[in-house]
Amino acid sequence: MTLTPAPLLGSLVHLHPDGAIRTERPEADTDLDRDGWLLMVARAESDDDVHGDHWECHTGGDELVACLTGGLRLVLRADRPGEADEEIVLAAGTAAVVPRGRWHRLALDAPSDMVAVTLPRGTRTEERTKPRVSGRPISP
């Protein structure tokens, strides 16, 4: 078997439950019901690159978010309306673990290279502009 290098930046690395590891194109990120862990290494130049207009929540497991270069903020949504969101500043070389089931998003302080590792199964997203009642989004 001949091994060939794969570009890590801009790829997804799928760690399958059977022990196999495969790199995938970023478009595969839309399959949120896959089994196994997903590792993403990305370069972000603006909040648009980190989907800053959406909250996300991983129900399948915790998420590790690491800042390799630059600077970013991990924003944890308040549990109740009227409370302030919590922000964790991630400077280059630091990481934080988002607990399973916690709504969160990223915001950039500078162009950044980052790593994220999570179980994608059960991931939910929600637009930031949706109003909330009792900590739950209002259905349209």
TrEMBL record:
<feature type="region of interest" description="Disordered">
    <location>
        <begin position="120"/>
        <end position="140"/>
    </location>
</feature>
<dbReference type="InterPro" id="IPR014710">
    <property type="entry name" value="RmlC-like_jellyroll"/>
</dbReference>
<protein>
    <submittedName>
        <fullName>Cupin domain-containing protein</fullName>
    </submittedName>
</protein>
<dbReference type="InterPro" id="IPR011051">
    <property type="entry name" value="RmlC_Cupin_sf"/>
</dbReference>
